[in-house]
Please model this.
Amino acid sequence: MSAPLNLPQLEAVHHVQGPCLVLAGAGSGKTRVITHKIAHLIQLGLAPERIAAITFTNKAAAEMRERAKQLVGKSAQKVLICTFHALGVRMLRQNGEVLGLKKNFSILDTDDVTSILKDAGGSSDLATARKWQWAISLWKNQGLNAAMAEAQAQSDNERITARIMARYEERLSAYQSVDFDDLIGLPLKLLQQHADVCEAWQQQMGHVLVDEYQDTSATQYEMLKLLVGERARFTAVGDDDQSIYGWRGATLDNLQKLPVDFPALKLVKLEQNYRSTGAILQAANNVIGPNPKLFPKTLFSEWGPGEPVRVSDADNEEHEAERIVLRIQSLRAGTDTGVGLGQWRDWKHFAVLYRANHQSRVLEQAFRKAAIPYKVSGGQSFFDRAEIRDLCAWLRLWVNNDDDPAFLRCVTTPKRGIGHTTLQKLGEFASQYRISLFEAVFSHSLISVLPPRAVDSLQAFGNEINDLQFRARHTQGSEAALALLLQWLKDIQYEKHLYDNEDSDKLAAARWTNVLDFVDWMAKRCGGEVDDAAGVSLVSEAKSLLEVAQTIALLSALSDRENEQDVVTLSTLHAAKGLEWPHVMLAGVNEGLLPFKPEEDGVSSQQDALNLTRIQEERRLMYVGITRAQRSLLVSWSKRRKKGREMVNAMPSRFIAEMALDVATTKEDPREKLRALRAEFALKVEAEKALADKAAHKA
Ligand code: ATP
Ligand code: MG
Model:
């Protein structure tokens, strides 16, 4: 049985008639309040489908669903547990038509967006397109459209970007597509401009719970306000010290506004940290100390001081990775002194966290060399792989024929003899008549701009899509879906395409395995056998393949069950938010990396002010990192770092000094290394012996 809630936690759980804000430091049981409150609301008789719990990632949603299920059983499955974006999809699917959006709209990913922007802005440079994308995304998060952005533009550059935004928006609407920001912006518009829709949603929402509230954007906050309406039955939980998405438009103003916008707000503070030992908590409190506070907070732990936090200074990044490996091995083997580690020895009890994605490379190499199983989270996702993106483009085109970016990818992957010139002519024709590429294919006058052979092959492609679409709509249940998907792969000769285009058969085989995993997983979702990680539709409903295909763009992980694997986690600090591990190692805690310093940093006074807010956000990131640790924490930096091709001297992060640890840097001890190697060897021998015994026993 899980431990009981403490008094303030109970207070937050039992406050169900009005608005409630739980504001507390890391590891104090905020997320736990949310899961228990879901259970409590159901026990009070609120229908589970009238409860919405909004999490920050799909993974967090899956975890929360699992915990809620443990508390209240099957009815937890009907609770809408999802991200703001997934809720947005649901709202647009239900009511988007009043905004002129077809039910089968596509959701574009970042790559589609940059290529549309290149086209809209007339540039082939990816970096430029990315800059536009950032600017536009920030505007959208502030609730600005192109005209508003242009009106408030401060420079020529901003004015130009605003005009590109206008063209970008035109294209999106022609493609019946939305980007990630629209998944918040459009539902907001829906609630603001259509009173009947707004009222219906307010009726539907018996109680809304929001985790990681400090990282909501201005538009998400507006959406929340409209969803809960006057009755304001909601629970937000958050920690201003863990706000780490300011760069993406999240704003702490939302925390400040809450008591003003909702005078009846009940504020609950949690002060006991149940996650970390005293030493870890002390380091965390010391680091966050210098940051200005929105609300004063204190945190204490009853676990006792525990093992002191360690700092390790390595000669370079390779050496750093090696020492991290050693640390893991010696903790597992129990040769490390002190830490009462009996039950914390599985691989899954360890995490190595770092500031930037690229830092995982050296670590991965060291892990492979030492045969330590690991997974990288927060890096390239399964859905970013070329083969999966190919297939997703096909699925998108089945769902939405107007999706031009998907059309272009499918018609050329695998190659089917339709060349660039043909596509260019088709594109010109389509934009002249303001129709989609797909529509253009079947237009009678296409023959006036293209030779008959080209028209024939385009139409053959179009018919193929129509046929697939028809079959997908009528395919329900996992077996039928699997049969259809496999037949489709065969028809388009996708396996051959992989082998033809990959440098080695081994690589092609690996990609083909991914493809098979993907179709298997898609098929299972059609049978309702897999939890809908995006939370867009209710679990365990049988869905048509077409319905499943529409939500693909929202997902970033194939399996919700990755937590159960016994592997070490390598993760960026951002992706580690909300999670916890017995042993945490922070790697690359160097000036320049954490706090991160962009290369082009200038010295103007305006930038100084910017720098200050940036450093404060980096400090919160360090605080998030430290507070992921339950039992042991190692903070590691290296004396030399690679910068481009050169090796340069590097400094420890200022945050290490700010932790104000009692013990200075621990030096590498060769005896420790020997002990670790011996212990690891002993474990291996033991494992082999156990296997041999088992085999002998069977025989
Ligand atoms: P973060 O700020 O990192 O998101 P949080 O405030 O959401 O943290 P939780 O993840 O809910 O904290 O809880 C941290 C740990 O403390 C979890 O392992 C949880 O099970 C445990 N915990 C929370 N409340 C209690 C309690 N009342 N008694 C015992 N353990 C608790
Ligand atoms: Mg939490």
User: Anything to note?
Assistant: Residues 531 and 539 are 6 Å apart (CA to CA). The pocket of adenosine-5'-triphosphate (ligand 1) is lined by residues 3, 5-6, 9, 24, 26-32, 239, 242, 274-275, 578, 580, 627 (CB under 6 Å). The longest strand covers residues 629-638.
